[in-house]
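User: two proteins, same treatment. go.

Assistant:
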Amino acid sequence: MNRPFRLRPCEWVVIAYFGLAAVRTAPRAHWTWLAAIAIFAGVGSCALARAETRTRRRALAMARDWLALPFVLIAYWSVDWVRDGVAIHSFQGSWIVLDRFLFRDLGLKAVIEVFGPALPFALEFIYALLYTLPIAALAVLYAGGKRSRVERFLFVLLLGVFTTDTLMPLFPSTDPRLRFPGEDLPAWMTASRALNLWLLSHFDIRASVFPSGHVTTGLATALGMWLAWPERKRAGLAFFLVACAVALAAVYGRYHYLADALGGAAVSLAAAGAGALVYRGGAADSAGGAAPPPE
């Protein structure tokens, strides 16, 4: 007799996002691609879940862990498919006022650049590596023997990222370095900044910058790690510090407004709250084990 299988909450998030995106886009161009991705995610998730339940093979459970990550980039790039019409910049006139206060009145730009190009280089470098953070977090959970808690981490990450991707087309905008050219740009053109500008010119979306996908990904990674491994606080703290550096780099580099960063942070916090509700029981492993003692 076939054992019943279940989809993980994070897998439902993937299916729901692409299904909703297909509905929002229809009957415009690309809606068939989004529908196909939703079907592929649903059928693939069910097939893997069923095979894992029947065979109890660890490799299939691991495949479900890692195959969730490519959907983060696919969903981000799909934002351009969902947008409706030409970008509207009415929000940005008020957003830039807050940035000017931050950089000029509070002197944040001068503080970052007080020691020359060292800190600007480091911030831009961390910003460039943002999308390796979820991979690093999964690796940390695996190395710590907490693979059974990976789905908690993935739920917070994917819910945060896909919520941001859902909201972005509602706030059509362009990044401040393009909307307000030459205003408060970094004083140093470091190698890491040149890399970021190249990546953005070749792989970035054009629909919106609010909320910030970079900030959401960074902070949701940190909060997801805290939810998955609360007794290892140092791991969550390390990812949180990196997420803060990403947020600072996003605003300093003029890739985002401060409002974008705050929006991404709010989405991440909401996703973490939802994760805490879905995975009640603290640090207990998904397999049903008791919570280990705190460090």
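Protein 2:
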Amino acid sequence: MIVFTSGNMVGTLRLEKHLGAGAFGSVFLATEVMLNRKCAVKFIKSANPRQFKEHVEGQILAKCRHENVVEVYDINVHNNDGDLYASIEMEYMPNGSLEAYINNKFLSIKETIKLIIDVLFALEHAHANNILHRDVKPANIMIGVNSAKIADFGIAASVDETKIGSVAGTPVYCAPEIFQPGAVCSVQTEIFSVGMTLFQAISNFTDWGSKLTDAKYISQGDTIKRVGYASYIPRRMRNICNTACNKDPAKRYQTARKMRQALEDLHINIDWHRLDDLHWEGFDEKKRKHTVQICNNDEFIYKINDRKKSGECKKFNTLAEARAYIEKYVYDNTF
């Protein structure tokens, strides 16, 4: 009998560590011992062994092979005491997901743009192969060394086969039309999900529950309006999110390529990182370090390469005024 537990062998796979579980299976870090290759392997109990639809995800991943799609190495079947399980052996991404990334560090706008462009390249390729992912969200975007890769095609489907929408993923990323009777998934519902992912990443939100207390805002497509933008997020960045997440599918970007090009057209002047609410640091194209900080007596201090620029320093009457000014400064000097 096979036991899916760390340390056990499943075929030529040695299970090293349990990475997580969900509605679509259990995932382990494993070593393929014949090739001495690290991988992530997903085990899914077969609901219908005669059809074995659980392998569809692996087949779709193989069809959508791209540098920004997590690679599939092998698919197999395992008998566990009479129960059949599909296994999908995939590329292991040790840096984890975009969701975990946001939870652990501040993500700058420049970093976010790069990651979302990678996601859009992947979706552009998938759509060209007639495949909709249908569950785009930070948890399904994996961080590589120099790129992002989209993963978990567990509810992906051919455009021709997708007749009715699915809210199997996290509803906050779903387009409002998905919640209507007879809804149909499309490239535009996918674009909405990318837009919501972009909004979360540039806002560095880690907890939607604290932002949304009424589900009707999600189903009506009012999440961004309800939550609002952080004051440091520039207008051009907001415009891209708003276009991608327009309530009217016809007013969204019509292709992943169009949205990608809109992001590529943005030129970052200073790539700001928030160290805390009163202290930001960024670098320009010449690699000069820019620092803005609120110091004693509610004074705004600006430095380039640690040299104070007295002409741009200001004093304020209250901390609230100083905090508002520092975020406005970041807003004005990002692009």
